[in-house]
Amino acid sequence: MRYAVVIEKAEHNYSAYVPDLPGCVTTGDTVAETLRLIGEAIELHLEGMQEDGEAIPSPTTRAAYVSSYFASIGRKGGVARAARMTPAQRSASARKAGRIGGKAGGRGRRKAQPE
User: Where are the domains of the chain?
Assistant: First the structure.
């Protein structure tokens, strides 16, 4: 089974946990080390659950990265449409809306007109 893992940067190291396996956590000095250690932690966690006669939970957590571009579209009610668009379609849509191509300032604001 494949479980989603969350890796967070702490002040001096990295930490990781598995949302579907409460209590399955680790820390490491680097992301690579943290990934290796969380893999070992998952194995040990599942072995312990089996030894204790507990049911092994199916992975249910899903992870995705969401850009600020999609967040801004969401405020305008176009999340589903934007998620299905190719990068070229998103660019064409942004150009048509005046967000790129010199017609708008940052984040969709109109550029100030020189006086």
Answer: 6-51, 68-108
